[in-house]
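Data deposition worksheet. Section B asks for the primary sequence of the deposited chain exactly as it was used as input, without tags or linkers unless they were present during the calculation. Section C holds the resulting structure in token form. Section D is free text for depositor observations; keep each observation to a single sentence. Incomplete worksheets are returned to the depositor.
Section A, Depositor: J.P.
Section B:
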Amino acid sequence: MDKIAALTEILTADPTNAFARYGLAMEHVSQGNTDTALTEFTALIQHSPDYVPAYQMSAQTLAKLGRTEEALDRLHHGIATANRTNNQHALAEMEALRDDLTT
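Section C:
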């Protein structure tokens, strides 16, 4: 069974499994299925709004696609979440990406 099938099976049993949803999104990114990955990141954020890596990686994906305004919006929410959850490492990385996108 491939990774996507295995993670999808886990999510069928538990749609709110943040780790599996993040893994599925990242697997889609690695396979070049960016639209599907972004859909999974969005679902993850809806189910687990404090899951900071979802904001960070979806913003990076959007930035790579040239969807700067969407990336900045995702970063705005991600930075607020990183501050709220005290995730200083992700906060610094998202602020750096935001700065790169706005200069």
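Section D:
The mean pLDDT is 96.
Residues 7 and 20 are 6 Å apart (CA to CA).
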